[in-house]
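Second attempt. The first submission of Phage-related replication protein had a stray character pasted in from the spreadsheet, which I only caught after the job came back as garbage. Lesson logged: always re-copy from the clean sequence file. Corrected sequence (195 aa) follows.
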Amino acid sequence: MSDTYSNFRELQLHEQEDRDYRIKVSQNWHQVLVVAPHGGNIEPYTSEIAQWIAKGDFAWYLFEGIRDIEVRKLHITSHNFDEPTLLQALHEAYIVLTIHGLKNLAEEYLMIGGLDTVLATLFRRELQNRGFTVKDCEQKYRGERATNICNRGRTGKGVQLEISYALRSRIVEDAECRNRFVDAIRSVIKAQELR
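This time the job returned cleanly.
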């Protein structure tokens, strides 16, 4: 399904902030930025997962659909997503991780994309070691365009996690699963920060 709006300015002309969507950001920018560009009702639970990963240690940014009907209209594909607050945050970030949602209701898995293949491999290994299923990335989820928001930080490369709805639900509902998932991601990021 193609997007209704090709960029943020177009969306802004037709949708109203705090009625249709909202933008939430952490108080301070940081060299690590965790982003949920399709949060709220667009791709449910991606906002919560992004904030759990960031905690108080990393910067976070959420673009959330807050209406109940036709919320899919608020989805802007990652390589077209150009909301100014996010672009400013990306200028500060060396590590960019974006959290996305796949529609799969039955299977608990994720796919990892983005141009930072080293970091993606580390995430994959750590998540698999902790019992999560990581599938090979389908073409449309690879996040290989330079304009994809995960690749627009200071290094020009980042990582995106595409998480099935079934796994997102489990992360939200099951504290043990959530802790395992969040700790896996955070441990990899923390190790990179120390380098």
